[in-house]
Design goal:
Shape: globular
Structural class: alpha+beta
Oligomer: single chain
Strand order of the largest sheet: 14-13-12-16-17
Order of helices and strands: HHHHEEHHEEEHHEEHHEEEEEEEEEHE
Helix content: 10-25%
Largest sheet: 5 strands, antiparallel
Distance between the termini: 45 Å
Radius of gyration: 23 Å
Amino acid sequence: MKPVAGVDGLSAESCGSCHAEIAAEWKVSVHSQAWIDPQYRAEIDKGGNRWMCLNCHTPLLVQQDVWPSGLEDDDVDRPITAPNPFFDAALREEGITCAACHVRQGVVHGPGLGGDPPHPVKADPSFRSGEMCNRCHQAELTYEGKSFICTFTTAAELADGAWAGKATCTSCHMPTISRPAAAGGPIREVRRHWWKGAGIPKVSGHYPPEEANVPGLDLRASWGDVLALEMENANAGHQLPTGDPERWIAVDVRFLGEAGDVVETWTHRIGQRWAWEPTPKKLDDNRLAPKEIRKIDVPIPEGAVSAEIDAWSHRISDENAEYHNLGDYPRKKKTHAFAVGSGMKEQKDPKK
C-alpha cells in the first residue's frame, strides 16, 4: 500500500497521534478484534479457504502473510500462494484498522469535514451513505461441494426494510458527537468509532461502553389470562439478528409460584437454523424484520403468580464453542431482565 505523506505509517497508533479519541474508540470496537477473535481464528483453520476470509478481517495487503495467485484445479480450498515480502505482523493484529477504510493510494478518504490536515484527503460520499460498509457486510457466495458458505446480507436487509432511505449503517452504528476531529482542531459534528456489533465481546473485557448502541430488540409483557409477550425489532435497520448465521436471540421466561419456586420455563428462539453437512442448507429463519412486532400469548401454568423474563443475545452455541476449544470465550450477553405478575403493571423494555 502506498504510504500517506505526513503520516508516520499505517498503524492505528500513528493515526491516534492526532485522532486520539477516535483511535481509543476503535481500540475497543469489534473491528479492532477482527483478527484476534478466537472464534474466527478457530474457524479459518478448518480448511484451506482462509485466504477468502482475510479480505474482510485483515483487508490490507500488508496484513497478509501470503498472497494467493490462483487455485489448484479451481478449488477454493487449494490456493496457490506466495510469501508476502511486505507483510507486517503487528499491523495484522489490528484487524480492520484505520487505514483499511480510510487510505486509498496514499490519500486519506473520509466524509469531507474540511479543515487543513497535514496529509492529503479526499471527500468520499461512500462514508456518509454507508456504502463503505457493504464491502464486507453484504457478501453472499456458495461453493459447490463445500460445507461452507459466505452469507452476510445486512446491506440488502436494510435496503429492503422499513428504514430504507431513512437510515444508513453509520447513522445507527456510528452515533454523532460534537468534538474536534483531530487534536487542536475546531469542534464539529463527528461520529463515534465504537462499532458494537451484536452486543457480545469477542475478547472478554474488551468492549465499547453500554451507551454505544441500544439493543435492537424492544421487549414488552403483560400478565392476565395469559402472559402476553411483544417482541419488536425497534432499533435495528436490518433483520434481528443479522450477520453470522450462528447468532440468535433467546427470550426466556421463568414462571414462579408464591414461594418464588420455578413452576415452569418457556423459551422463544429468534434466528436462523442451518444444516452444514453435506452442503449448507437453511432450514428455517424466524428473525425479526425492521419494525416487525411479534405477539405471542404464553399459557400461564397452574400455580404461577409471576414471571421473570430475560432476553439474551447469543454469538455461538456451547456445542460449537466446545468443538473449537474456545474455553471461556464470550458466548452471550443479557440484554433485558424484568418481571410481571399478579398486581404488577405492564412491563416494557427496561433499557428504554
